[in-house]
Specification:
Length: 489
C-alpha cells in the first residue's frame, strides 16, 4: 500500500536525539533481586524445547518506523516490535560482516576470535568453537539455515544438520553477465533477487519442520539492504525523493582523525565515481531512496516469514530474534557504508519475542551487544552452552526492561595493521581510543550524546571533559569483563 506523505527534507537528528532522550529517561530503579526469578519463572512456562527462529538482516541500521524513522515503510517489523521487546540501545562488536556475524554466532568478541577482516572464515580461525547453532544441534535440535548467516555462506559446517542454502553466488554471476552495474535500481525479476529465492526455500523447510514436530533452530539471513540497492518497484513506490531525510551531516566530524571514517564499497558501480571522489548529490539522493526501498522490500519478506510461523501453528512454541550485523552510513559526514566506530555504524536494530515471557510492545534502553544473543537463547531453551561465552544473558531484561544493566558496550575497528580504534559506548558517551601495534594510545575521540547525538564534534581535547576521557579510557583498558561482572554481582 502506498502511503501519502508530505514532502520534506530533514536529517535523522531526531532519531539519534530520541535515542539520547530515551537513555536519559530510562528507569534506574531496577536491579531488584526479584528480576531474575520472575524471568526464570516465566521462561519455565516455555515448551521444554522451544523452537528458535533467528532472523539476520545485512547492513540494516535502525531505519525502521518502530525506531522512529519518519518515512520508513516497515509495517511488518513494526508489528513484530509491537509483539515483543525492542532494544533501543543494541550494539555490534565490529561494523563489518565477517567479524560481527562471527561474534553473534560464537558469543566471542573479535579480539578473542581473531576475526577482524572479511577474509577469515570462522571454520579456519576457531574451528573448535561451539557456536550458537552447534549448541542447539548438540542438544538434539534440527539446525538449518537459508541466506546470509556468516560472511562465507558455507562456514561453520559442523553446526548445521544440513548445509546452508544460499543462491547469492549464482545470482551475482548472472547479474554480471547481464551487465547490471548500477548502485540502485527497480528490479522485479525474482530470479535476480536472492532474498526471495532463499525465503522460498526457508518456507519449504519450515513447513517440513512443523510437520515433523521436532525442535528446530532456524537461521534466516537476508542480504538486503546491502549494496547494490535493488528492490521491486512496489517497494520503491512508497518513497519520493523530496521526502528522504538528509545525512546527519555532509562534512567530516570536527576534531576527528581522517582515518576515523571511510567510504568503502560505493566506488564499485557504474553510476558512482572512483574511490576518493564525492558522489554527486542527485546520485546520493537516489541511493538513499534506494536504501529505504530495499529496507521496505526486506520488511515484506520478514512479514511473509512471520506469517508462516503463525499459519504453521509455531508461534506459541518459537522464540524469534531479529538482528542486524551493523549499521550503515548514507553519505553521513561525507562517507558511505560501515567500517567504523561511529554510532551510525555500531548501533543496530534488535528485537525478540519469547512466548509467555516478553510483554507485547515493551522496550528497553539497556545497553546490549551482539554477543549477548547466544547466552540468552541457550538460557531460554535450557540447553548447555560453553563456559567461555563473552556476552551476558538478557533473560532478566525480558521481564524487567527498565532494570539496571551494563554500564557500557564495546566495539572496535582497525585501520590496516597500523592502528585500532577501541570503543566504549555508555549511556552518555561514545569514546574511542586509537592505539598502535604496541597498544600505545595515539588518538582519542569523545562524543557527548546528551548534547551531540549526531556525533558532530570530538570533545576529547576539551578540558571540561578531562575526567570523562580519563574514566572512559580506563574502562577501555579494563575491557568488558568488569562491566559484565558488575551486572552479575
Amino acid at each position: 500500500m502506498r502511503l501519502i506523505k508530505t514532502s520534506r527534507r530533514r536529517p535523522l537528528a531526531h532519531i539519534l536525539l530520541a535515542s539520547a532522550v530515551a537513555f536519559s529517561t530510562a528507569s534506574c530503579a531496577g536491579a531488584e533481586s526479584a528480576d531474575a526469578p520472575v524471568a526464570a519463572q516465566k521462561a519455565a512456562a516455555l515448551p521444554v524445547t522451544p523452537n528458535v527462529l533467528f532472523i539476520s538482516i545485512d547492513d540494516l541500521r535502525p531505519d525502521i518506523a518502530a525506531y522512529g524513522h519518519p518515512v520508513a515503510v516497515t509495517p511488518n517489523m513494526d508489528a513484530f516490535a509491537a509483539s515483543g521487546l525492542l532494544f533501543e540501545s543494541a550494539y555490534t562488536q565490529q561494523a563489518v560482516c565477517a567479524p560481527s556475524r562471527a561474534a553473534v554466532m560464537s558469543g566471542l568478541r573479535p579480539d578473542t576470535t581473531g576475526i577482524q577482516t572479511l577474509q577469515q572464515p570462522l571454520d579456519e580461525e576457531i574451528p573448535n568453537a561451539i557456536t550458537m547453532a552447534h549448541a542447539f544441534k548438540n542438544a538434539g535440535y534440527i539446525t538449518m539455515s537459508a541466506g546470509k548467516i556468516y560472511h562465507h555462506h558455507d562456514d561453520n559446517k559442523q553446526a548445521w544438520t544440513v548445509p546452508n542454502y544460499n543462491v547469492i553466488g549464482d545470482i551475482r554471476k548472472e547479474r554480471r553477465k547481464r551487465g547490471m552495474k548500477l548502485s540502485n535500481m527497480k528490479l522485479d525479476d525474482e530470479s535476480l533477487l536472492p532474498d526471495v529465492q532463499n525465503l522460498r526455500h526457508a518456507q519449504k523447510d519450515l513447513k517440513k519442520l512443523a510437520a515433523d514436530g521436532k525442535p528446530f533452530f532456524y537461521a534466516m539471513g537476508f542480504h538486503k539492504p546491502h549494496l547494490p540497492f535493488y528492490a521491486p518497484t512496489d517497494a520503491w513506490d512508497n518513497y519520493e525523493l523530496g521526502e528522504i531525510p538528509d545525512p546527519v551531516s555532509r562534512v567530516a566530524q570536527k576534531g576527528a582523525p581522517d582515518y576515523a571514517l571511510v567510504a568503502y564499497e560505493v566506488d564499485k558501480f557504474s553510476d558512482t565515481p572512483a574511490k576518493g571522489k564525492s558522489i554527486p548529490e542527485d546520485v546520493a539522493d537516489q541511493m538513499r531512496m534506494g536504501y529505504l526501498a530495499a529496507v521496505t522490500y526486506i520488511d515484506g519478506l520478514v512479514g511473509e516469514l512471520l506469517a508462516d510461523i503463525d499459519a504453521l501453528g509455531l508461534a506459541d512454541d518459537t522464540i524469534i530474534v531479529l538482528w542486524s550485523d551493523h549499521g550503515f552510513k548514507l553519505g553521513d559526514y561525507g562517507k558511505w557504508a560501515k567500517h567504523s566506530n561511529a554510532e551510525l555504524d555500531i548501533r543496530i536494530p534488535m528485537m525478540i519475542r519469547v512466548p509467555g515471557v516478553t510483554t507485547a510492545g515493551s522496550r528497553t534502553n539497556a545497553l546490549v551487544e551482539s554477543v549477548d544473543v547466544y547466552p540468552t537463547l541457550t538460557d531460554l531453551a535450557k540447553i548447555n552452552a560453553p563456559d567461555n561465552l563473552e556476552g551476558l544473558s538478557m533473560v532478566p531484561l525480558l521481564t524487567a526492561p527498565d532494570r539496571q544493566w551494563k554500564e557500557a558496550a564495546f566495539a572496535q575497528f582497525s585501520r590496516g595493521k597500523q592502528r585500532k580504534g577501541e570503543t566504549v559506548r555508555t549511556k552518555d558517551f561514545r569514546y574511542t581510543g586509537w592505539v598502535d601495534l604496541k597498544g600505545t594510545l595515539i588518538f582519542q575521540e569523545l562524543y557527548d550524546h546528551r548534547t551531540d547525538p549526531y556525533e558532530l564534534v570530538n570533545v576529547a581535547k576539551d578540558i571540561a571533559y578531562k575526567a570523562d576521557v580519563k574514566r572512559l579510557d580506563e574502562m577501555r583498558k579494563a575491557g568488558w569483563k568488569p562491566v559484565r561482572a558488575a551486572v552479575r554481582n
